[in-house]
Amino acid sequence: MKHFAHDFGLQIAALAIASACTFTAVYARADTWRGTAPFCDGQCLAGETQKGVSDSGDGGYCITGHKVLCGNAAPTCPVRETNTACYGVVMICDNGFYESPTQNWHSCSSYACGACLGIGSSNTGSNLFSADTCKQGFVWREAIKDDHVCVTPETRSQAADDNANAVARRSENGDTCKQGFVWREVVPSDHVCVTPQVRAAVASDNRVADQRRGSAQPSGPDTCKQGFVWREAIKDDHVCVTPETRSQAADDNANAVARRSPNGGASGPDTCKPGFVWREVVPSDHVCVTPQVRAAATSDNRVAGERRAGR
After folding, report:
1. pLDDT tens readout for residues 87-119
2. pTM recorded for the entire structure
3. Which of 108, 116, 160, 200 has its CA 20 to 30 A from that of 83?
4. Phi, psi of 98 (to 5 degrees)
5. Which position has the higher pLDDT, 220 or 144?
6. Is the CB of residue 257 less than 8 Å from the CB of residue 270?
7. Same domain, yes or no, for 158 and 243?
8. Residue 187 lies in a domain
9. How much is the pLDDT for 63?
């Protein structure tokens, strides 16, 4: 299925380009990849400095030309996860992050990244080619073309950063790395120069690749979209949130006793110390958290349905 999806995607490249142009508006951000896949002609804007060259950059692979990494004075856009959606027969990958505490999606870059089975204006979930779908909390690494090994968002960002620095880490003798660097070898032909620690992490990710792939609906109707995980702030809390929010909930639970007033108060033994309020992921949730965390929990509850797979 994977090879079929790739071949089919190449066959409809002309159609994909027409659709992709709608989603690849380039904004001035620090360390921005210029060049729209699959036909790339990357060029930095006036006032920017070219910092690197790559065939994949932030994800979309170049059939022709290259992407260039351009630096400027604008704030960096931190890619933490990737959302996918189908527009007709074109799969669009959208790199970005969810803003806190509103949890509004902030897009850093988007590009045509594959083909879809469905025909329609906007399809997600079951209409995507799903053989390489990652489990909750993991995303495609995309260190090279068709690299669908599932890794953490941080590892994906590391791969993009290593690609951006590939030229600077090579010696003047071809693919030989400068001292202190080694070939990454996502596959044997991957000669991007990285630290030995990154190379070891890549080998480890490759070994556990099959364990991180998910089925179409691994957790029934509560299955989260790629990039989200169950919050589990309380028992059976299947609201889909970012991995960072899940970690926050676990940390808040661990500090619950320390944040309660030792002498009780207006709300009885669950009264919070000054500066804290009840989290209330459900009305009976009296874990004491900051007002910002409480607001984020309320926001996550409101958009819970939008983050489930198949929506």
Report:
1. 656 667 777 776 655 556 777 776 666 655 433
2. 0.39
3. 200
4. -95, 125
5. 144
6. no
7. no
8. no
9. 73
Position 33 in a domain: yes
* Token digits of residue 63: 């059939």
pLDDT by residue (tens digit) across 158-199? 998 898 888 889 888 777 999 999 999 998 888 899 999 999
Q: How many whole angstroms separate alpha carbon 131 and alpha carbon 113?
A: 15
Domain boundary among 159, 183, 212: 212
What is the reported pLDDT for 310?
A: 63
Does residue 28 sit within a domain? yes
pLDDT > 70: what percent of the chain? Answer: 68
Chain-centre distance for alpha carbon 153: 5
The residue count for the chain:
311
**Amino acid code (one letter) for 170:** R
AA identity, residue 11: Q
Is the residue at 218 inside a domain?
no
| Model pLDDT, residue 102 | 57
- Is the separation of the CB atoms in 213 and 135 below 8 Å? yes
The confidence score (pLDDT) of residue 122 equals 34
Pair (51, 24) in one structural domain: yes
Query: Residue 107 carries which side chain, given as an amino acid letter?
Result: S
The answer to whether residues 260 and 206 belong to one domain is: no
Q: CA 275 to CA 273: how far, in whole Å? A: 6
d(CA 96, CA 106): 6
Regarding whether 146 and 109 lie in a shared domain, the answer is: yes
The domain in which residue 54 lies consists of 2-168+200-212
Residue type, 179: Q
Which residues, 6 or more positions from 260, have their beta carbon under 8 angstroms from its beta carbon? 269, 270, 271, 272, 273, 288
